[in-house]
Amino acid sequence: MSQLDEKTQQKEMQTFLEGLRASSQLQQNIQDYTNRCWDKCMTGTPGSSLSSSEQRCIGSCVERFIDSSVFLVKKLEQDRLSLQGLSQ
After folding, report:
1. Beta strands in 1-88, from DSSP E residues, in sequence order
2. Quick count: other Cβ atoms within 10 Å of Cβ 85?
3. Residue 38 belongs to a domain with what CATH number?
4. Where is the Tim10-like domain (predicted)?
5. Domain range for 72
6. In total, how many domains does the chain have?
7. What is the pLDDT of residues 44-84, one digit of tens each?
8. Which of 29, 36, 37, 72 could lock onto 61 through a cystine, CB 3.0 to 4.6 A?
9. Distance from CA of residue 59 to its chain's centroid?
């Protein structure tokens, strides 16, 4: 196997592993949001279905966490690009 093929395979493996890490992080975030929002919005013992206020609370709670996460990711990316521009 040539060195170029080996480097290509290493790059593909690295990309694959980064994708797995991102997927794992997303699953962890979803679990975290679910737990936090459940604790915040569920005021008593749940019945056979969620009340409309519980549904709204959980929906709003998750949206706030997602909006915050998106904001932070964009901010960190801007900071990274800014620092990268300064170092060149």
Report:
1. none
2. 8
3. 1.10.287.810
4. 17-78
5. 3-87
6. 1
7. 888 899 999 999 999 999 899 889 888 988 988 888 888 87
8. 37
9. 17
